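Researcher: For the record, we're logging two predictions in this thread. I'll number them. Prediction 1 follows.
Model: Prediction 1, sequence and structure:
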Amino acid sequence: MLGSAPGLSGRWERLEPRPRARMLRQVLHAGLRTSFHALGRFVAGHPVFFASAPVLLSILLGASFSRYRVEEDVESLLAPKHSLAKIEGNLVDSLFPVNRSKHALYSDLQTPGRYGRVIVTTRKGSVLDPVHLDTILKLHRRIYQMQVTVPATGFNSFNYSFSYLCLPDDKNVCIIDDIIRAMEEIQSARTSNRSVPVLRYPITQLADGRQAYIGHQLGGVQGWGPSGAVRGLGTGARGEGVRSARALQLTYYLQARGGLMDRVAGQWEKAFCAELQHFAALHPKLGLYPSTSSSLRTDFQFSSVLARRPLLASLGVCGVLAVLCCSMRDCVRSKPWLGLLALLSITLSGLTAAGILNLTGATYNSTYLGIPFVMLGHGLFGSFEMLSSWRRTREDQHVKERVASVFEDVMLRFSGSTMLHLMTLGLAASPLTNMEAVRLFCRTAALAVTISYVYMLSFYSSCLVFTGYLETGYRHGCFCRRVPKPDRLDSKPAWYRCLMYTRYQDETQTTNPPHVVGHSHAHPPNPNLTHTHAHTHPHSANNPNSHGHGHVANSTHAHPHPHPHPHTHPNTSMDPHPQDSHLLLGCVRRCYGDWITNTYVKPFVVLLYLVYISFGLMGFLQVTQGSDPSALVAMDTTTVLYTRAQQRYFSSYSPVIGFYIYESAPYWNASVQRDLLEYAKGFQRISWLEAYLNYLTDRNQSTSQSRENFTRTLRHSFLREPQFAHFADDIIFAERGQGEEPDVAASRIFLVAKTTENKREEMSVLLDTLRRLSLTSRVRFLIFNPSFVYLDRYAAAVSSPLRHSLLAVLFLLGLSSLAVVEPLVSVWLGLTLLSVQFGVLGFMTLWGVELDCMSVLCLISALGHSADCSGPLLCGFASGRGESRTRWVRVALERHGVPSLQTLICYSAALVPVGSVRSNLTRTLFRCLTLTAGCSALHTLAFLPTLLTFLPPSKSRGHRPGGDGQRQEVECVEMNDSTRVVDQITTV
C-alpha cells in the first residue's frame, strides 16, 4: 500500500542521509517517546488502580508518625563532619577533661555537657555598683539553692539542687566563676568598712593570690588610665583597674553522668530559665539573658513550630492560584480540579517520603522546611506541562490516545529534569559532602522528588484520565454536571449561561464533519470517527512537527509504532477559538511574544542582562561565610538575645584559646622557653610556664637548668605555693624510672586575643596562622576552642556540595546530548544554569544572606528549579526547522513559556507566607528561593527569548523548498469505534 501512494516521494525526501551520530540520537529519542506513549496508554487503561494505590500507600506510611523523632545533636548537623578541629577536640578532652579543672573553668575553653549561663546587664550604672552587686549576688544564691524534683510526682521523687549537680573541686566544693569570688570580696570589704580591693581587667588577682581571667565575665568595661582618666570600652591594658562595667556573665556547670543525671540536669536547665524570668520581673533595672546547653537545639527546631501555619497558608494560596491557572472561560475545557489534584499529589508524595524516613529511623531537623518547596516547584512544572500538552491534543480523539500523546510529549522532558534533580541532590548527599545538614537534606529531598515523580506518573495522570472522560462526556469542568444544549441555555438566567459557557458543541458539529479523505471505502457517519486533515503548505519538510525532536504531541511523522498522532502547524493557530483560551496563553500569544521579540526591545533586554551580570558579580565578590549557628535559629529566642548581648558587651576579646603542648618538650632549654614565650606574645594569657620562669627569676635562680632540677623545683616548690597551686591542672607528668624525676608529658596555656567587630573572620585567620606555625615549630602543639569546629574549613565544607552539584549537572548535560537530537540544547541549558546560579549567589549576598548550610541547600535546589523552567523552552525552540528564529521563539513561549510562568506564579505566591515567619532560617530560605524564582523567570521569559533570536542553533539547516514551492505529506486517519483502533494510510 505504501508503494501505491503517489505522494510518498515528497515524504521520503525528508529522510535524507544524515550523520550517523544524529541518526542514532533520533532512534534513541524515538524509542524513548514510544516507550512513554505505551506507558500513557497503560495508565489510561487502568486509572482506578493508579489513582487509589498511591492514596492507600500514603495513608499506610502516614501512620508511621508515631516514630517521629527530632535531631538532638545540632553540632553534628551544622559543623563540618570531618575536620581537624574535631580530632584536636578529642585529644584535648582525653588529656584535660572538664572534670579535671578543679580550680578554674574557662567558659569558652571546652564543650561542657550541661550548663546554665546568664548575662546580666544594667539599664543604668555599673554592675559593680553596690545596689546592683548585691542584687546579682542575691541572684547567685537563689540559683545555688534552687531545687528540681525528679520525677515530678510519686513516692520515688527526689529533690536535686545545684550543689548536688555541680562540678566539684578537690575540696568537694562547687566550682563557680572567679568573678563571683571577686564580687564577694568586694561586698565583704564594703560591709566591714575596709578598702575595696582593686578589680583589674582582663586578668585580676584574687585574695588568695591566684590570677584569674575575667575578660569573658565582665563586659562593657571602662578602665582607669595611668593618670586616672577614664579609658574606653575594652581598651584597658593587662591588669588595668576597672572603673565600671555594663554587663556580667555567670556560668553554672553541671554533671551529666548517666541517663538519670542527664535527665535531672535537663530539668534543672528548664528551672534555671524559669527562675531567671521570675527574677527579671522582680528587678526591672536589670536585664537577664539566659542560655543553656539545650538552647541552641530548642531554638533551632523552634523554626519548624513557627512555620507550621505559614506552610499551611502557602499551600492554600498555591492551591487557589493553581485552580486559577488551570481554569478557562470554557467550562468544559476548564480543568480547575487538576490544580488541586496536583497539590494533592505533591502532598501525598511528601507524606509517603516522611513515612519512609520514619520507618528507617531517620530524624527531623528544621532544614527540611525547604523540601516542600523543592517538591512544589518540580511537581507544579510537570502538572502544568501535562495540562498544556493535553490542550494541544485533538478533542475528537479517544481519552487513551490523548493521554498517550501527553506522555509522549511531556514525560521525556519531565524525566530529564527529574534526573537532573536526582543527580545534583544525590551527589550532594554522598559521603563526599562534609556537612551533615546538607547531606541529610539532599538525601531526603532526592527521595521526595523520586516519589513525587512516580506519583505524577500514576496519581496525577489517572486524574487527568478522569477529567478527560468528563470532557468527552461534555460535563462542566468544576461541577461535573452535563452542560445543557444551546437551545436549553437560552431560557436560563444570564448568570447561568455565563457559568455554563462553552463552544465545544459548535466545534464538534462544524469543524469535524464525519468523512474520510482520499479513501476508496465509504464509511457511514460515526461520531467516534477521528480524522487527521492533510495539509498542503510550502514548508512541510521544515514543519516543526515533522522533526524527531519536536517535543510536540501533535506531530505526524514516521514512527516505529502504529499509533498515529494529530498534526499541527506553526503558521496556523493552535486553538481554533483564541478567545476561549487561557488568559495567560492569550496574553503570551497576542502581546508578550511579539513584544519580547521586537527589534527595539532586544537591546534593552541585552542591557538588562549586562546589569544583571554586573550586580551578580558585585555580590559574588562580597560572599561571606555564615558559620555562626545562631544565624539559623528562630528570632526573639533565648539564643538570639543571648548572642546579641554577648556581641555587644563581650566582643573585645576572642574566646579562650587553649594552647596545648601534647608531647614531652625540653622546657628547661632556654631556646624552647624563648619560642613558647614568643608564641604567646601579643595575647592576654595565663601561662604556668611564664609564671614559673618569673618565680625562678624572683628567687635569683637560673631559668635554664638541668631537667631534674627544673622538674624538681616545679613539683615541690612552685606548685606547692597557694597562688600557683591551680597550675597543677595544666600540667601532666609522666613517670620515669624509679628514683628519677618525672617528665612533663603535656601542658596547656590559655591565650586570649584582642578582637574587633569582625570577630569570627579574625578567629578563622588566627586559627590558620597558628596551625601553620605548629607545622614548623620544634615544640609540638595544637590550639583548640569549641568554636573551631564550626570555623575549621567551613567554607570548603559548605561550598563543596555546590561545586559537586554543578559538576554533576554539566556531566549530565554532556551525557544527555547523546539522547538529544539537537546537542546545543545541553549547551544552552548548562549556560543558563550557571547564569542563574551566579545571579542567585550574587544577589543573595547583596540582600544580606551569608553562605551557610541553608543558603547552599537553596543553591543546590535552584539548579533543578531553573532547569525545570528553561529546559522545555530551549527544547521547543531547538526542535524547530524552517521559518524564522523569532517565529520559533514565539511558538516555544506559547507551548512551554506559559507552563513555566504558571509554575513561577504559584511557586512565588507560596513563598510569601514563609517570609513572615520570624526565624533566621526561614528568612534565608525565603530570600534564596525568591531570588531563585526571580532569576529563573528572567532567564525563561526575557533573556533566553531574546538571545535565541540571534544566537545558534540555526533554523535554516535542512530547509529545502520543493520543486514549485509545494510539498505533499502522508498522513494517518484514525477510526475509533470504542472497541478497536484502525489505522488507514491515505494520500492527498
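Researcher: Logged. Prediction 2.
Model: Prediction 2, sequence and structure:
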Amino acid sequence: MDVDLLRPGMIPIAPNTKLWFEFLIEPSLLEEHLNKEHPDPSAAELLIKFLYSSMERPKDLPLIDIDDLMDNSRIDKKIEYRKRKKYECLKMLAMKIVSFWEWDLNILETRVPISLQIIFVQDLLELVSCGLNLIDFETHNAIENLSALKDEQVFAIALFHRWTLTVIINYTLSKKSSFSLGPIQDGNEDVLLKLEMQSEHSEQMLLRLLDLKRSSYTIPTINTFDPPNEIRPLNCYWFKGLTVSSAEFRSQIMYDYAKYKFFKAQYGEAGIYFKMCKELNMNLTPSSFHKIKLEELNGFCAACSSEITENSSLLMQFLYSTQTNHNGILRILETDNQIMEIPMFLRDSLELDLASMLSLGKFTASRDMLLHIHTLNAIRRASVTSGEIVLLPPEDYVTKIKFNLRGPEIFLKDLKLCMQIKDKKFRKNIKMFVCNVLLKCPKNLVKDILKDGHEEIHELFGDEDIHQLLTLHEDIPTVNIDMSKRLNRLKKTQINNINVQKLLLKNKISIEYDPSNLRNLLQQLHKMDMDPVFSILDINYEWQVPLPLQSVLIGLPNGLFKYLVIILIAKSKEMIKLNDFERAKLLLREAETETKINNNIMYSKIRQLISWEGLYTEMLQFQHEFKNFAIGDLVERCKQCLEFVQSDNLIPRQEIAEQCILTLLNVGEWEYLTKRHYNCFKLPLAIAYTCLDVNKFKGTKKSAKEVWDLILPVFDYGYSATNKRPLDGDPQCTQNRVLSQSDMMRVFLSLRDQNAIQIVLSLLAKIQNFLRDESAMELIMPFLNIWPVIPNGMNIPLRNITEVLGIVLTESLKYHPNHLILLKLKGDLQYVMGHYSSAMKWYLEAIVIVSDYFARPVLKPMIEDYVYKRMMKCCMQMQNFTQAAILCLFQEEIDYATAYKCASETNSCDALDEYYDYIWDINLLEFLIYWHTKLNHQEHRQKLLKTIGALELNANNNEEIKREAANIRKLKFLRALSQQYVHP
C-alpha cells in the first residue's frame, strides 16, 4: 500500500515527522523545519500541499476550474473565498517556502506542477497589488509610470514575467528530452499556450523594467510574510527583505530575457543582452538572489558571438581559425605553448586534418606551415609529458626535419619562442626533447643545428654536453659477431618451434574467412605437415561437413584442393548457424569454383553436391528473411533438385529434399507438390493438398483427413514409442509408423505461407476445442469445420496441444505481425489460459491494425462481438469494472445488465471517473448519475452532468452526429486502453 506522509492516520509515523496542518496551526515551526538537513515532508511536498489546500472548495462556494486559471475574466470569482483566513494563511506559508528557495525559478518549475505555479504567482501579484489589480497581468503594460511602484510590486511583476518566459523554455525542452519537468507532468498544455500568446507582453514588460533608475531593490525573505491568526490579520513586513543592487536585479532580468531570445533563435539580440549581463556581473558582488552561473553565461556569450577578437579565449580563437581557412593559426599555437589552454587532442587533430587537406589539394598554404605546426605540437607535447615518455625517439618528427630544406631553421625558430619561459620543469622537459631530436638526427644535420642555433642550444646545454653530442656518432664501438654460430642456433630454434608454428597456423585458419588468405595459410601448413594421417577437420572439432560430401572428399589424397574445399564447406556451415547466409553462399561459391579445375566424374560429383548445399543455404535464407528475400530462380532450382530424389544416380541429401518441398509449399506451388509422391515427406505434402483443396472449395468441404490422421497420433500417448520414426527420408519407411513430435514441429515452424499457417493452427485449435469442450472457451479460427472428429480411445493431453499451439503461433507472428486472424487467436489463447492482461494486449493489437492505430472507426466484420465480450470479461477478472462497462457498449446488442452491474461496483481497480468522458451512451450515463447521486458522490456526479450535457450527445441530434460522437469516444477509449495494456 502506498503511504503518504502528508496524510495523517495511514501508519504510525516517526516522531520527527511533521504533518502539514501543524504549520497551519503554528507557522513559526516552518522555518525551523525547512532548515533541517533532510526535512520530512520536504519543502516541495509542503508547497504542493499548501497550494492544493488553498484551492479546496468550501461547501457553499463553487470549485475552482483549473482550465480557467489563466482566464482573467474569472479572477474575482476564483479569489473571493480564498480571502478567508485559512486560505490566506496557506498562501503565506507557500510564500515562505519559495522565499526560502531564494526565489529560484528553476526549483519552482521543476518540482511544482504548472497549475500550482500559476496559483502561486497570481497569489504573489494579488498580495502586492494594493488596489492596482496587478493580478490581471494583461494590464501590466498599461501602467504608465513604473518608477512610482513600490519595490515589492516591481519584484512581483518582474518575477511573473521572468517565470512566463522560463516556463515556456523548460516545458518545450522537457518535451524534446527524456526527462520531465513540472509543467509536462501536469499535462495542461492549454495554459502554456496562453502563456506563449502573452509572452510578447512579458518581453516588453521586462525591457521596461530594465529602464528603471533605482540604486537598489528590496527582495522579500522568509521573515517578510506573517500569516494571520484569530487575532492578527495578514501582514507583510516588506522592510525585512533583502536589499540587492540595481545591477544585480537588472542582470537577472537581462539573463532570463536573453535566454528566451536565444531559445527563439534570435541570436543577435540575445548576444547583446548576454554581453550587457556579463559586463554587469564583472564588478558585481552577488547575493543569495543572484542565480546566474558564470560558466553558462560565458557559454551563451560565445554561442551568440559572431566575431572573435584578441580578447576572446585562446580556445575560441583556435576553433574560429580552424573554420576560417586557418588564419593566424601559428600565432595561436605559439601563444598556447606558453599558457597551454587548447587541449592536445585538438592540436593533434589540426595536424592530421591539415596534412590530409594539403595532400588532396583542398587547402593551399606555404610549404613550411605544416612543419611549423609539427614543431609547435612536438614542443607542446614535450612540455607536458613525463621524462620517460619524452625519451622515446621521435623518429617521425626527425624525418620531417631531414626532408625539409628549412627544417633546422624552423626547428630553432620555434624553439627560441619557448625559451622565454623560465619554469624549471618546462625547461628540463624541453632540454630532454632537444637532446632526443639531436640523437636521432644525422651528424651533418646536428652540426647545422648546433651552428645555426648556438645561442638557443647553449641556454640548454653546456660546452661539454655539446661536445659529446658532436662526437657521439663517431664513438660508437664496432662489434664483431660470429654469424656461423648464430645461424646454427637459429636452425635449432626453428626445429624446436616447428610445432608452435603449426599451431599458430591452425589457429589462424580457424579464424580466417577470406578464401585467398585461407589458400595461403593452407599452403604453408601443407608444406610443414606431410603426415598422411593428418585430417583437416582436426583443426576444429566443431566443423561439420555433410556426410555425402565428406565421404567423397575423404577419399581424395591429401592436398591443397581437398583441404581448401573441406574448410570452405565447414566454414559455410558455421555462417549458417550465425544466420550469415550471404557469407555462407560466398564460401560455397568459392568451393564450387575450385572444382572447376577438372572435369572428371569425381569433380563433377563434388560440384553437384556443393551446388545443392548452396541451394539449401539459399532456401534457409528465404525461410529466415521471408518477405525481404528476392526469390529469383529459387523455385525452378527446387523443382530441378526434386527431380533427382527418386533417380538411381546422385541424389541430394534428405534435408535438402525436405527443404525444397517446404520452400515450394511456402511459395504456393501446391498443385506441383500434389502431383508428386514421396514416401517420407507425407506431412508437408498433405498440408499442400489441404491448402489446394481449401482454396478450391473455400473451406466448405471436410477434406483434410490426411493431415488429421498424420497429426493426431503424434499427440496420442496410446501409441508405443517404438512406432515413432524420424522424418529422415528412409526409403523403407511405411505408413503404419507416425511422426515424432520434433519432426512435426520442424515442419510447422518452417511454414511461412499464410494459408498453410492457418491450416495448421486451425487443426491445433480444433483439437484443443474438442479436448476442453467448453463453448465459452473455444478458440475461433477459419477452417475449423473441415476437420473430422477425434475418435474414441485416444489419450491426448490438453497441455501438450496448448504448448505446441503457442509455439507455432508465436513463430508465425514473427513473420506476419499484422495478421488479424493470428492476433485474435493469440488473444483467445491467452484468454482461455487465464492470462487476462496479455489477452487484452493481443486483442488491442488486432484493433490497432484494423483502425490504423485508431485513425478510423473499427469495422464490425473485422472485430466481432465475441472479441469485445472477451475483452469485457478480461477486465472484469482484473476488477477493471469501469473499462468492462464501457466495453459492453461496443457489442451489436448492448448488454445493459452487465454494464450496469460493472458500473455500480465499488471496488474497481481502474481509473473510474477518468473514463466517464469516453462514454457516449445516454442510458449508461443516466444510470451513473443516479448511482453517484445515491451514494452522494458529488464530484463524480458533476463530471457526469458535464459529460451528458455535451452538444454532440443531445438526443435530438441526427444519426450521423450521434454516430460520429460515438466513434470519436470509442477511439479515444481504445487508445487509452492501448496505453495501459499494449504500451505500458
